[in-house]
């Protein structure tokens, strides 16, 4: 499928599309298991799925943190998911040289939040012609994403999405400002809500090595998800794990696979009754005595 047609398919997803999978490729066996189970849920609920996992977590808090199998092996495993289950793939890049290789497997190239303004990375990703999902930096106003999306388009690639993933609130916390979900539409492209990373508490917990790692508020993921869907987003990004407490990366904010179907069912119900994707027509004319 041509890239532009794929983006149109995502935009037309009813009531939203889902980007989901474990944070990082842990093993070939685990990734295939997760892809099979997540696909079974989204197929049953008739939701468009883009399978997500990272081949390398370059932006870890600690040097002791698990990073993944690396570019070559990680892409080989993700390509197997794509072939065996017929799923489109989204994965992230951290350096411009990675983009060409990633584009041979991924349907969506993701720009990490900390790198959302890195021009050389954005241009290298854009030149692949793939759909580019740019995560809003935790330090950025939503207006910054209009500029980041423009960099993709100026490189000749109209296929771009932007993603809300929380805003820094002090040193070790994030909040989700629902207004950003509206303001991100100024980038004139699909808006995605990351409902799991948004509940991170960066460098918020001590580790056995004496350093720190990210904590999180997993119990609030449904709260944020309900809010985002009610506001009217185009897609949901979420990290899902079959054994969250043992996940080697971002364990506190990966959603339990056993609860995936129930949460998505509720979100579909909310989206069906919400008019969040439609601008509210505000009439400021004075009200007459007959209330007309």
Q: Taking strands numbered 1, 2, ... along the chain, how are they ordered across the largest sheet?
A: 1-2-3-4-5-6-9-12
Residues in β-strands, percent: 15-25%
The average pLDDT score comes to 93
Largest sheet: 8 strands, parallel, barrel
Query: What is the radius of gyration computed over CA atoms, rounded to a whole number of angstroms?
Result: 19 Å
Helix content: 25-40%
In whole angstroms, the N-to-C terminal distance is 51 Å
Summary of the model, kept short:
The protein is of the alpha/beta class. It has helices at 3-11, 28-45, 71-85, 98-103, 119-126, 143-154, 178-183, 221-231, 260-273; strands at 17-21, 49-52, 89-92, 108-111, 131-135, 160-164, 167-168, 174-175, 191-194, 200-206, 212-216, 235-241, 255-256.
